Amino acid sequence: MALDVSPDSGSQSETVVSTMRTSMGELKNSFNASARPTIAEWKKGNCQDDAGCTVQAQIRPPYGAGTPVTVEIQFALTAGTLTGKDLGKCTTQITFKTESPVWASCRVKSSAWTSWAEGTGGTFYKHADYKVLGATASEVQDMQNGLDSE
User: Fold this and answer.
1) Helix (H, G, I), strand (E, B), or coil: what is residue 108?
2) What pLDDT does residue 88 have?
3) What is the pTM of this model?
4) Which pairs count as long-range contacts for 31-36, CB under 8 Å and 24+ apart, including other chains?
5) What long-range pairs does 63-67 form, CB within 8 A, spacing at least 24?
6) Alpha helices, DSSP H, located in 1-150
7) Helix, strand, or coil here: 140?
8) Can you state the percent helix, strand and coil of the chain, rounding each to 5?
9) Cα separation, 20 vs 145, whole angstroms
10) Does 114 or 47 have the greater pLDDT score?
């Protein structure tokens, strides 16, 4: 393999590094739409009163995403059926450092939950939506800081 390398002047290098820093900044809030974690197990309980519901689930890492990988999970509750009245949502993040499942939890506390729990109550369903983060803010910052040593 042969390469032609042309060194840039100092002013050109500053422009290249600035462009790279900007491009790296665009990775913030990126996500991998094809990576899908799955629920290994839902934990029962923690929803006995009108003060809210702690939703807990053991999450399997997305296949083929590699580690470490950070996943944002939004739990939601619906009343009566899978498509019933929205009782509230909460969001949390977990980071997989290995291929093993990880527990995630957050607390749903909403006026809809309180009203439902104080009123009819009954059966409710848990749901989970995922966003597999492409790069966390700290990872982007680390990459940008690495440019300072170049």
Assistant:
1) strand
2) 94
3) 0.72
4) 31/72, 31/131, 31/132, 31/133, 31/134, 32/62, 32/65, 32/132, 32/133, 32/134, 35/62, 35/63, 35/64, 35/65, 35/69, 35/132, 36/62, 36/63, 36/130, 36/132
5) 63/35, 63/36, 64/35, 65/32, 65/35, 65/96, 65/132, 67/96, 67/97, 67/98, 67/99
6) 10-25, 111-118, 137-147
7) helix
8) 25, 35, 40
9) 11
10) 114
Look up residue 98 and give its two tokens: 């290995």
CB 119 within 8 A of CB 71: no
Amino acid identity of residue 64, one-letter, is G
The burial class, CB within 10 Å (0-12 / 13-18 / 19+), for 12 is: exposed
User: Is 68 a residue whose pLDDT tops 90?
Assistant: no
Helix (H) or strand (E) segment spanning residue 6: none
Token output for 83? 């498509």
Which helix (H) or strand (E) covers residue 66, if one does? none
147 phi-psi bin (left φ>0, alpha ψ -120 to 50, beta other): alpha
User: Do 150 and 17 meet the contact criterion of CB atoms below 8 Å apart?
Assistant: yes
Please state, in angstroms and rounded to a whole number, the distance separating the CA atoms of residues 33 and 123.
32
Q: How many CA atoms lie within 13 A of 143 on its CB side?
A: 17
